[in-house]
Fold:
Amino acid sequence: MLREVIYQLKEKFNERFEALYKSKCGEVHRITEWAQRLQHIYSELDMSEQPWLPQWSDAEQPETLLTVRNDEVTVERYLTPAEWARLEAQAAEEERRRREREANDFRERAIMQMMNGVLEVRWEDTLKVDVPRPAFMDEKEPDDWTEDEVKEAAEYERRAAELEVERDKYRKLLEQELKKMLVTLQETVDRFDDSLNQLFTLKVQTEHAIYQEELKVSRLIRDVASEDDRQKRETELW
Structure:
């Protein structure tokens, strides 16, 4: 009965441990996806920061200790004829896919040419293209501009100003998104750390309860042994 209690205590803790482990797997995957977006935002804002990525330790994934990476092998690997055949088949398949991609790229380029080079233009991509500055603005003094050139210069200034407004709007949107993502990321980490601390507390409590039950078992065994010894001595006296 007491050993059943110990088993149940261990089983309950293991269930909580497995649930938290699965939770971390999900959070790591989510943060990795966020990191790709953060990297894009940092690049768009000309920031040198690198997104943080959580790392697994060997203790968390002990099965990796049994996995040998190619960079850990210092001698040339021996390949059987069957393995050579498999590698050649893979190389042939990769070559086929490469040719297929080239054919698709050719078709895409042809479509783009028919559509004046535009398949899908994103708003943020258009912001990276400067408004063409009329050559005469750098070659002639403003007093020497013709009436049409004055109009063209005014149109250029108007479009350039609108572009700067749109760029500033895009930059502010990215900054707002960055701020929200960093807050969400920190909240995610803090929430997981809280769960981890709770699990650690449960581990200490579970170990204490198990030690108590094991002590009861030891005492029971001792009492039984003492009773058997007492009965044996009484039998010998008779």
Q: What stands out?
A: The radius of gyration is 36 Å.
